[in-house]
Write a structure and sequence with these properties.
The structure is a homodimer of 672-residue chains. Chain A has 672 residues and is α+β, with helices and mostly antiparallel strands. Among the domains of chain A are: 16-133, Jelly Rolls, CATH 2.60.120.260; 154-249, Jelly Rolls (Sandwich), CATH 2.60.120.260; 338-393 and 399-506, Alpha/alpha barrel (Glycosyltransferase), CATH 1.50.10; 591-661, Maltose phosphorylase, domain 3 (Sandwich), CATH 2.60.420. Chain A is 29% helix and 25% strand. Chain A has 14 helices and 33 strands. Chain A is globular, with a radius of gyration of 27 Å.
Chain lengths: 672, 672
């Protein structure tokens, strides 16, 4: 007898899952006992949807339907009463319609059956007369998880040691966690347990000042918290108990980049970057696990780039973009920040470049168009972007940054967004958009020249009421290099006149530092960047970091280093943008780059390293690059690879090792 | 010591309460055990909102905040930790911000305090940078009700008798109810109780065919159902028990029109109309309490008109309109029906005419504009409305009604919507809209001439592909009269050539019959309408109706009269549009009409009645009209009234009786 898989998937209306999950996820941020929901608009899924499938079956089929929400089923146009979710379809052609409506939460359904089992072959409508293929998610909604109750796996972690200061005692779990706390053997007369979480030892001891604290009523001998929190250290007060443990909640990643080299510090920086990124790559790619525990488009954009060089988890990139975007019409900048709308567009276009996921690009292209048209509708008389009322023009945390007027940096993001959308439109055969955005790109690019100060060899910061501020900052100059917004000659000049100039205000956040280091890498200043990685990220490791921080200044000592935003422990010690080295090393040292046709080129550069061996996931496969003093070898499970070594190109055959030995005149691999 | 009211109201973002309540309410329809959510889009409230109030207080104030959803409070920009909802404001100027976010449902808050107690003086934003006055609802959200748990009062009703057929027994509660069922003294070994509801005796006996049935597990000696249902008769099976009662859920109405006359049948028709309307006027004005238990714009439009002559409950009209409209952008016809979008616009403009509620009209004017612009964007090359894919062009339930092409009836609704919106725009000082819609109205009105068949003295039904169908139906011709879309002369001609013609297909639903009878009343054919009311509505009373039906045909006998839509008891026996007499008698016999300036005229006409005394609520007051053989008297609690009697106008002084005695030459009231 043939065995048939009759188990259906949970299915729903496209985007609804991400929108709903995101809105709920974003409400779980706390500061001490105070919940901090986001201060920008959150969207909702549709409330009532209709799933349809038509098919011919050659024998009787039993269909079992369950739903989250109330539901009804029509078979060939007629309601089935008294069915209790069990239906029988005789052989023949049938149309099954399942209507699901949820008073609260996401309406979703699951049908087990042979032909009619629920999957992407069902169509669904939000009752707007349009039918789309139903959506599902094999990563987050399988096993015990349902669309409205997504559960990530947990790992039990016991405290590694206890740290005492006088009478006070805290538990050290040895590394940053994002975990529930379970306390067992609580004394029977205890009333409540108070938890004080610490990313640092100091924070956990400081019960008055720690960012996260919570009080739980005791209702028995054990206690399990319901909202996982970020901590390495934990203080438990209010009751005696037998044991405490952490249930570390994480998103499993089947693949993870590796980097081993002649420099153990660099290896440790790479590993710590990966672990940092793993903690912030969850239901969505968030900024930090303690704070803000939100999805910010600027942070996420860097997260996508890091992800491509660390996990190549496409699903989390898609989830994050959809959750961030919310529901059309697009009538507010993403996260209220002008730059963040552009990063959304750039991330969306980038996603196609890395993944060639044409279906996703097509399905969501209208979102990029909506976002771009919103921006276009807000340009000034020069066709340039200026912050309007309510718009937050952010760029970076930096003192005295006056972002009013026509800010060069924003025009550059605008230009890049136009260019990338035009290029994607071209690929998708959307001629009108390709033309419109291509022309606008040309126009904005030309106007970027207004900001160029030829004498100083730099882009100035802004025009205010038509007057140049003549202020040279790094931001625009970095992006001119990174996104090729000027000639290579000019890029070289900018390196000298801006990036290497101590007269230009230094960047302090790893957020913008990420772009600056990438620009320097791109311009060949790799040796400098390697040193910088060792000193900045190595500095954090010397401070005992097990994940990388929101910001770091080696000059800060004592408690000062954990303070931010005027709060003693305001600084997040596990921040996506702290994981930059995974990208910098993957892209510029390992040198992997998608070729735009579904293949890749790999241009390794060991700089000052004696040797390194790195594995980077790429699409469904992975690429391993080994550089040794005597040469290079590449092994890929993915087809269409090219090794670039010392200016020559070598074809990388999937599954075979491609080696080039420098010392021999006769290469074992011929160049192409 | 002065006593200060410190109790705040529950407040929320405008429209959110109605949108959320409506979506939930609409999901409570069942057919037997099958839930039937609506097949058009349902909207959601915003998830995270921010309430703000700034004020100066001259002494310390205690503020107590509660919310539905998670919330935080900032005072003068700083979060307050560990407050447990209790805050102290020292004397001085303060800004209090309460952020509320709801994972599910409506985010709402309530603050008790002196100056800072929550009310409409707080501003609220859905985080789109715009701040609006917070909304509240004193009718539905007070006492035990909260924004997410609205409870209407209930009245205990015992069955009046038991009816037996063989071994079968049902309970008769004596009148239509919308009620929960409570069963007490259930035998201890019972497993489940099965309820079969009947609007008719037959239905309750027919356990296989009744529209509403439900099975409840027994978990103790008593049982209370959780979803009120429509019934007069009830069958209880599955267990022995001591007693059964109904908890009739209703919206209290402080005022209700009365009508007493020399014709007891008419009085009974009026009372039954009011009771019918009371049952369907609830959280919203729904179509019927058994079925569909939904808000349909066409049904609601008639409900509004009836309401003005029955309860003058403005709040339920506003709630219904807001709930129906949902959330902008307007991208689908209301209820998917083209006519129903127009009825929404007409109802909205009418609301202002009846209530002079300028604040509501201003706040929601953009909705009428959005709806109208949506229609305009869908006009054909002639500037006329045609059904596009997905649009349902309804008009009425009637056999062989082909509503494709340019249907005259729809152009008339379009024209009326344009005219009414232009007029309202004019009142609100919105010149651009007044001009635009005024010009379009003129254009569409001119094109209505294409449909006029001078020879037959009638508007034809439609043009299909540019060709007239030459079909004469009543619909367009009724509306031409009712909304003055042609000259009085032509209107008179239509009465003869269409309304009084037996060659033109008769109207069978009380829905369109409502407009037909109103048109006949308007044209002075009152005697005919009175007879019609007696025979049609009187016919239902003779059938034992305690509420008026969805449709009635005196020729139907036996069970046939309860069947509809191919189902044995498909017909709703308590339907809003069945309550038409309350409007027809109020508007054309009592003759009350708002004068468009906040006052009213009353033009009583007793037709064939010897006498009548009617009280009609108007705005905050009421108007009582008595007509006797010897003359007329009017008493009003509302200012600005004018009595029109035998062609003369008399001022009605509020609080005084205005009488005109026909037999005397010297009137006690002088004409104006």
């Amino acid at each position: 007898m043939r065995k048939i898989d009759t188990a259906g998937k949970w299915i729903w209306y496209p985007d609804d899952f991400e929108i709903e999950l995101s809105a709920r996820f974003m409400m779980r941020r706390y500061e001490r006992d105070v919940p901090i929901p986001p201060f920008w608009k959150q969207y909702s899924c549709w409330r009532n949807v209709k799933f349809v499938k038509k098919a011919v079956i050659d024998r009787e089929e039993r269909l079992s339907v369950t739903a989250e929400g109330i539901f009804n089923v029509t078979i060939d146009g007629a309601f089935v009463y008294g069915a209790g979710g069990e239906y029988v379809l005789p052989a023949g052609e049938h149309e099954v319609v399942v209507t699901v409506a949820a008073e609260k939460g996401l309406p979703a359904m699951k049908a087990d059956g042979e032909t009619f089992r629920s999957d992407g072959s069902w169509l669904v409508t939000c009752n707007d007369h349009k039918y789309l293929p139903a959506a599902f998610n094999d990563t987050l909604v399988s096993g015990d998880s349902t669309p409205n109750h997504v559960k990530l796996p947990t790992e039990v972690c016991m405290p590694l040691k206890e740290i005492c200061r006088g009478d006070e005692k805290i538990y050290d779990f040895g590394r940053q966690l994002f975990a529930f706390v379970e306390i067992e053997g609580i004394e029977s007369d205890a009333k409540c347990v108070r938890l004080y979480y610490g990313e640092s030892e100091q924070e956990a001891f400081d019960t008055e000042g720690c960012e996260l604290s919570a009080v739980f009523e005791v209702n028995g001998p054990s206690l399990l918290t319901d909202n996982p929190q970020a901590f390495r250290y934990l203080s438990v007060k209010g009751a005696a108990f037998r044991s405490v443990k952490a249930l570390h909640e994480y998103l499993p990643q089947p693949r993870q980049a590796t980097f081993r080299s002649s420099d153990p510090l660099l290896d440790e920086i790479f590993r710590t970057s990966c672990y940092t990124l793993q903690l912030t790559t969850r239901e969505f790619i968030i900024d930090g696990i303690k704070r803000d525990r939100w999805v910010w488009s600027g942070d996420a954009y860097q997260g996508y780039l890091m992800d491509y060089y660390c996990f190549f988890d496409c699903d989390v990139v898609r989830r994050t973009m959809i959750g961030l975007f919310g529901r059309e019409p697009f009538d507010l900048h993403i996260n209220h920040i002008m730059d963040y709308t552009f990063y959304w567009i750039m991330g969306f276009c980038d996603y196609y470049r890395y993944t060639k996921d044409r279906a996703f690009a097509e399905r969501n292209f209208s979102k990029a168009v909506s976002a771009l048209e919103y921006c276009i509708s807000r340009t000034d008389e020069n066709g340039l972007m200026q912050g309007k009322e309510g718009d937050w023009v952010f760029i970076d945390w930096a003192e005295n940054l006056d972002n009013t007027g026509e800010v060069c940096f924003e025009q550059m993001l605008y230009a890049v967004s136009l260019r990338m959308t035009a290029q994607l439109a071209d690929v998708l055969g959307k001629e009108e958009e390709a033309k419109r955005y291509g022309a606008l790109y040309a126009d904005v690019t030309q106007k970027l020249e207004w900001f160029w100060d030829e004498k100083r060899g730099a882009y100035i910061h802004s025009f205010k009421n038509g007057k140049p501020d003549n202020l040279v900052l790094r931001y625009a100059n970095i992006f001119a290099i990174l996104y090729d917004l000027c000639t290579p000659e000019r890029q070289k000049r900018i390196v000298k006149s801006v990036l290497e100039s101590s007269d230009v205000q230094a960047i302090t956040t790893p957020y913008m530092r990420f772009y600056e280091l990438a620009a320097l890498m791109k311009m060949g200043e790799k040796q400098y960047v390697m040193e910088e990685i060792r000193s900045y990220w190595g500095g954090m490791l010397r401070e005992g970091a097990t994940t990388f921080w929101e910001t770091y200044d080696s000059r800060q000592t004592g408690d000062e280093k954990y303070a931010m935003y005027g709060r003693r422990y305001g600084k997040s010690l596990c921040h996506t943008w702290g994981a930059g080295p995974v990208y910098l090393l993957g892209k510029y040292i390992t040198g992997l780059e998608p070729d735009g046709k579904g293949g890749f080129t790999v241009t390794p550069d060991k700089t000052d390293l004696e040797w390194f061996t790195a594995t980077v996931p790429f699409l469904e496969g992975e690429v391993t690059v080994s550089v040794r003093p005597e040469g290079v070898s590449v092994r890929s499970t993915h087809v269409g690879g090219v090794l670039v070594w010392k200016g020559k190109r070598y074809r990388v055959i999937a599954g075979k090792e491609t080696s080039v030995t420098d010392t021999k005149e006769d290469k074992i691999c011929s160049s192409i």
